[in-house]
Amino acid sequence: MPDNSTLSLRTLFSTFITGSHILHQQNVLDAYGHLSFRHPTEHSHFFMSRYIAPGTISSPSEIIEYHVSNAEPVDPNETKGYSERHIHSEIYKRFDSVHAVVHSHADAVVPYTVSGVPLRPVFHMAGFLRAVGAPVYDISDYRRDGDKFDMLVRNEHLGKGLAEHFDGGVGVVLMRGHGFTAVGGSMEEVVLRSVYTMKNAGIQTAALTQRAAWLGYLSEEETIGSTEMTQSTVTRPWGLWVREVEADNLYVNNA
Ligand SMILES: [Zn+2]
């Protein structure tokens, strides 16, 4: 897995733009949702796109640098950003090891946020979901007087409540009536986790509709082994996905 601390900002901007395109092409993100990454040396800063659909970002000039402490832009005159950036800031604040975050509304995953059926790993590419299943964050547990009811994680206390669900090495947290958030040590890793969270949800749903007598979820040992496997092979799907977005002229990367 790439170590962000040794990579230049220019390289990371290019990876960020390509990663945003991959997440769109793979249907993890549509016009909504976002990728972010932590500054490789200034760990109290992170980067996100300005307020545009991830598939359309094309230039480093469209990337905004934020403070981890409060999710405010480093440049106070910066253009408009996403309203849910506290998802990202509160996770970076709580976990030094996290260097990239994805927030998605992928429709295959949403049923598992509202049904009480745990999203559990049904194949080896999703061992990071853990044998017990991905925890579910219920925003209503964290709302305070004055908070909106639009389900968005708009402030520090709502983001902190979400971040706490990643304690103990959790890689993906579901969000009731909303979607999911994934974390990783690199953009490549968090993109892989996001894609395979969505694929696992589709496969699990297909298995459940078969009215099977049982479902052979991965065991605890199998999830650990599979997680190690995907971490050591992330460059293979990443290389394919990069070529796929390069071959599609919707996506432009000028970094
Ligand atoms: Zn959202």
Please tell me about this protein's structure.
Helices cover 35% and strands 13% of the residues. It has 255 residues and is an alpha+beta fold. The protein has a 7-stranded mixed sheet with strand order 3-2-1-4-7-6-5, with helices on both faces. 43% of the residues are buried. The model has no long low-confidence stretch (mean pLDDT 95). It binds zinc ion (ZN). Zinc ion binds at residues 84, 103, 105, 178-179. Zinc ion binds next to loops. One of its GO terms (cellular component) is cytosol. It comes from Coniochaeta pulveracea. This is Class II aldolase/adducin N-terminal domain-containing protein.
Bound molecules: zinc ion
Class inferred from helices and paired strands: alpha+beta
CATH class: Alpha Beta
Strand order, largest beta sheet:
3-2-1-4-7-6-5
Which blocks of ≥5 consecutive residues have pLDDT under 50? Answer: none
Radius of gyration: 17 Å
What is the makeup of the main sheet?
7 strands, mixed
Which overall shape is indicated by the principal axes computed on the Cα atoms? Answer: globular
Kindly report the average pLDDT value. Answer: 95
Helix content: 25-40%
Total of helices:
7
Chart the SSEs and their pairings.
Blueprint: H1 9-25, E1 34-38, E2 45-49, E3 63-67, H2 85-94, E4 100-104, H3 111-114, E5 136-137, H4 156-164, E6 172-175, E7 179-184, H5 187-208, H6 220-233, H7 235-246
Parallel strand pairs: 5-6
Antiparallel strand pairs: 1-2, 1-4, 2-3, 4-7, 6-7
Helix pairs in contact: 1-5, 1-7, 2-4
The structure holds zinc ion.
Zinc ion is lined by residues 84, 103, 105, 178-179.
